[in-house]
TrEMBL record:
UniProt keyword terms in alphabetical order: Hydrolase
The protein, known as: Metallo-beta-lactamase family protein
Start and end residues of each Beta-Casp domain: 255-380
InterPro entries hit by this protein: Beta_Casp, MBL, Metallo-B-lactamas, RibonucZ/Hydroxyglut_hydro, RMMBL
Keyword Hydrolase: yes
Coiled coil: none
Gene3D superfamilies (alphabetical): 3.40.50.10890, Ribonuclease Z/Hydroxyacylglutathione hydrolase-like
Keyword Glycosyltransferase: no
CDD domains: TTHA0252-CPSF-like_MBL-fold (cd16295)
Record domain Metallo-beta-lactamase: where: 13-233
GO MF terms, alphabetically ordered: hydrolase activity; RNA endonuclease activity
Amino acid sequence: MKIGFHGAARTVTGSKHLLTLDNGRQVLLDCGMFQGMGKETDTLNGVFGFDAQTVDYLILSHAHIDHSGLVPKLVKDGFKGKIFATSGTRDLCAVLLEDSAEIQRDDTHFENKKRAQKGLPPIEPLYGIEDARKAMDLFQVVPYGSFFQIEPGLELLYTDAGHIIGSAAVSLKITSGGRETHLTFSGDVGRYKDLILKSPQAIPQADYILIESTYGDSLHLQVADAAEVLLDWITKTCLQKKGKLIIPAFSVGRTQELLFMLNQLELDHKLPSLDYYVDSPLSYEATQVVKKHPENFNDYITGVLKVDSDPFDFKGLQYIQDAEASKALNGRTDPMVIISASGMADAGRVKHHIANNIGDQKNTILIVGYCEPHSLGGHLIGGAKKVHIYGDEYAVVAEVGQMRSMSAHGDYQDLLHFLAGQDPTKVRKVFVVHGEYPVQQGFQKHLAEKGFTNVEIPERHQVFEL
């Protein structure tokens, strides 16, 4: 048996790990899109590093695009097997993957107009809307909490990872030659005091572990502080400077957390009377999916639901669906809050909002999650004085802020808590994935302190015998 790491290897995005069993069957863990990797992004997404036609099964940990975004390309390239996912992941993928195809279509159209002016040949998107729809026909829902037989000798267990709706750690029981091998892939591990979701569940003892490490060498601020910090940014930008507060936010997870905090501020009679826009059709659809899956909610939000029928709604909230209505926001100069996808500011409507508002010092661009260093969001929080958006250069005049407590990823203490039920002496090897290499090296030291001494940090396309 062997495993190859074809994404999220010494980087955060593009999660793809290919397990080849002794009988030749191939099981792909996640099929994510690389995001925010600069000029390298398109090249990375164009080549899997394996043959899609030879993959027998795809198991998804959750629906974020860096874990599911290349599923339609996998199908387009010849994959015909089953795609296993939780109910929440399946429902989110139904809207996320089609939206991804639409964004690619629109961005490619925009880019090809510029290429035509330069006499360059047109480019093609990675996949189309029909590819996304074909992919959804291959999904099979697997519930949390009990082993499911994929085929004789291969069983799957999903446990709640507490990251987003439907997120799960993947545990596999592989039987070959009368011997059982247990492999666990963490997916993305959430936080143990999340605003909305249940804490990550314990995982069974494993022989091999693939563990994410996005924040593997840092600690978060307390989540309880986040609503007050958000209120401070609204007050400073909208009430004092009379500007626009623009918040790039992933449509799944981060947007709902922001809405929940704003709702809480309203319940506490602290929310300023302003216009609050969620400018993303996908964010609206994702929020409706989140509301359909209260089984992932923690006790606190379950209690809130007893006094507030919709904890993601409040006075002043408006969803923008129409593209023309989105453009109209850029013509206004009155104070407002705009929450728009994507979270790394590398795609979607938020790029246009940033381009139209980055030149005014009264405005603020507030980053509320992880950004790849090469993404637009990464450049902004890195202190860039000038940035390029759709090929044009813009001086960074608006204030750039960051809310470090807004993370759906656990910090290194959360990750170690996630592994606390494991006997390190029984774990043959830990593979650290989904993190920047210096962070992974720091997390490797934390793992060693807990007794996990056989730790690898795979390179992209590196293959290991198990």
